[in-house]
Design brief:
Radius of gyration: 26 Å
GO molecular function: hydrolase activity, hydrolyzing O-glycosyl compounds
Structural class: alpha/beta
Pfam family, one: Glyco_hydro_1
Keywords: Glycosidase, Hydrolase
InterPro entries: GH, Glyco_hydro_1
Family: Belongs to the glycosyl hydrolase 1 family.
Distance between the termini: 34 Å
């Protein structure tokens, strides 16, 4: 029985709890609905509403939960326990309340008193949140502490930090070529030739990691600094020596190194032979990984194969990411297929040859999360592409706070929902947030970034 209804915000108070504060529920009209439910054709209205509302993407089988003439308490309970609500709980609905803000349950100007099912949806969703205890009072969050074993991590990527693009035997990679040959594709025409100069200032960087009391340092190894041509026939010893010094410095500060094997910087000679479009790269990548494990695996216990594989593949379906091959509708699929195979091949290599001896691990989830979006069904654009093939349109709630990055909004409830979903879906597998952050236009007075991390 629903004995009381009120707004329960996903954030349970705090920075974004404007919905609970500004909204109220007209209980008398809910009673009016109960008294007159026999006059409403619930099934027909639910069908039309589910078809039109992108939040409810379900089959007609759900409609069998409803009687033609009335919605009983037993049917409501059955509906709440259905597979549909498992899907709803994975989605964000809080910010949609801003658009509905408790619309009148009944259109009183019409004699037939048709039910506004958008409002009914909100009532039921809030009922689910309330009954399943997903929200806790604000005071329960006041003294939360991080659990034992929780690790704070900081991350960099070789091309974005090292610089030294043409020294000590390093080869050319696709981002060198992309930014040198087509600099106009970068908004400020910048590149990674110098970056933050970490190749020469890595000790200072690692000291900063130590001073900030982080537990881990995630960084990537630049493929072309180890193998200038990309292939194992020519090894650059100066590159090996640099990363040995780098890792030793991390360990000397009591930090755990987490190493990414590939962070977008494919050696140009490999790209000239097809890059990630060529199935041969599966073994080429394994040869490179084998060399890295052999030289550094006794010091490194946490490994990542490919950073953001979707964006790596996108470089073969769009012109805005290296190597910038706009073979849309084909390139990203071929590249994605080979990336998955290369990842699996390297995982098996490590399991077979190194894990027992080196005691390292790939057995964890790594999440790069910056923002969240809403989605609905529909085609995107006219060109064949994975975006169009997905039949999904992405959009944002305009009320979500902006950042200094055009595509990023502050959506903490999306991040929390993702973490909870992964915990359940993957049986509480160890999880690392390996990238997260907020871009700002002001480097010093970065109130937006402070808000991003607080919420």
């Amino acid at each position: 029985m629903i004995s009381k209804a009120a707004i329960l915000s996903n954030t349970c108070g705090g920075y974004l709890d404007k919905y609970r504060k500004r909204a109220s529920f007209n209980w008398e009209k809910m009673q009016l609905f109960v008294e007159n439910r026999h006059r409403l054709n619930i099934k027909k209205q639910v069908w039309s509403f589910f078809e039109s509302d992108p939040l409810f993407y379900t089959s007609s089988s759900t409609l069998s939960l409803f009687d033609e003439k009335e919605l009983t308490s037993k049917q409501l309970v059955k509906f709440l326990n259905s597979g549909l609500f498992s899907r709803i709980q994975e989605m964000d609905f809080q910010n949609r309340i801003e658009f509905y803000v408790w619309k009148v349950i009944f259109n009183e100007t019409e004699m037939n008193m048709q039910l506004n099912l958008q409002s009914l949806k909100l009532i039921v969703l809030i009922f689910v949140k309330y009954c399943r205890g997903q929200c806790k009072p604000d005071e329960e969050f006041a003294n939360l502490t991080f659990p034992k074993g929780f690790l704070f991590n900081v991350a960099t990527a070789a091309y974005q930090s090292e610089g030294a693009w043409d020294v000590d035997g390093k080869g050319i990679h696709i981002w060198d070529s992309f930014t040198h040959l087509e600099p106009y594709k970068i908004i400020d025409r910048s590149n990674g030739d110098v970056a933050s100069d970490s190749y020469y200032k890595y000790k200072e960087d690692i000291q900063n990691v130590h001073d900030l009391k982080f537990d881990m340092y995630r960084f990537s190894i630049m493929w072309a600094r180890i193998l200038p041509d990309g292939y194992r026939h020519r090894i650059n010893q100066k590159g090996i020596d640099f990363y040995n010094r780098f890792i030793d410095e991390v360990l000397s500060k009591g930090k755990q190194p987490m190493v990414t094997l590939y962070h977008w910087d494919l050696p140009q000679p490999i790209e000239d032979n097809g890059g990630w479009l060529n199935p041969a790269i599966v073994q080429i990548f394994a040869d490179y990984a084998d060399l890295i494990f052999n030289h550094f695996g006794d010091k490194v216990k946490w490994w990542i194969t490919v950073n953001e594989p979707m964006n790596v593949a996108a470089g073969y379906g769009t012109s805005v990411l290296a190597p910038g091959l706009d073979i849309h509708g084909v390139g990203e699929y071929l590249a994605g297929h080979n990336i998955i195979k290369a990842h699996a091949n390297v995982f098996r290599l490590y399991e077979r040859k190194y894990r027992i001896k080196q005691q390292g691990s790939y057995h964890f989830l790594g999440i790069n999360h910056y923002t969240s979006v809403l989605c609905t069904t529909g085609e995107s654009g006219r060109k064949p592409s994975w975006e169009r093939d997905s039949d999904v349109l992405l959009y944002v709630d305009p009320s979500w706070p902006r950042t200094g990055t055009f595509w990023q909004r502050i959506v903490p409830q999306g991040f929390g929902g993702l973490l909870n979903w992964l915990k359940i879906q993957y049986d509480n597998l160890p999880t690392f947030v390996i990238e997260n952050g907020c871009g700002t236009e002001n480097y010093l007075e970065d109130d937006i970034r402070i808000t991003y991390y607080k919420v």
